[in-house]
Amino acid sequence: MELTFAIIKPDAVKSRDTGRILQRIEDEGFQIRAMRMRHISQSEAEGFYAVHHERPFFASLTAFMSSGPCVVLALEAPDAIRKWRTLMGATDPAKADAGTLRKEFGASIENNATHGSDAPDTAAFELGYFFPGIELAR
Ligand code: CMP
Fold this sequence. Notes:
This protein is α+β, with helices and mostly antiparallel strands. It has helices at about 10-15, 20-25, 40-50, 60-65, 80-90, 100-105, 120-130; strands at about 1-10, 30-40, 70-75, 115.
């Protein structure tokens, strides 16, 4: 079993797609081990996305991520990191495969509905960033 970190981003919460995305998560066989709705500050978003801080879209990305509530999750499954990225689809919804969450719920490369860790070290950082010290429910 592996854990990954996921976000249902402010665009998808605002469009009331949270329930549909959670249903897809459970239908695909993930166990939700932790879940919280958070309206993060821009400085929290900056810390979370620190690896992107030289990118031209950093200010816009962190403003968007702090523009409204999001849902942060710890998801467990065999090969959870890869499995969740497959379910999300490509970063740009226009390039995402049919049936993926970003294709269905995303509007643009920034407003792309969901986030997922891309590797074990980033999953560990991201889980710790939003669920520090939490005992994951079993
Ligand atoms: P996410 O998986 O959360 O990781 C970093 C985010 O940066 C990514 O999803 C996109 O929402 C955003 N992003 C990546 N590339 C661009 C881009 N070229 N323009 C705007 N936002 C981007």
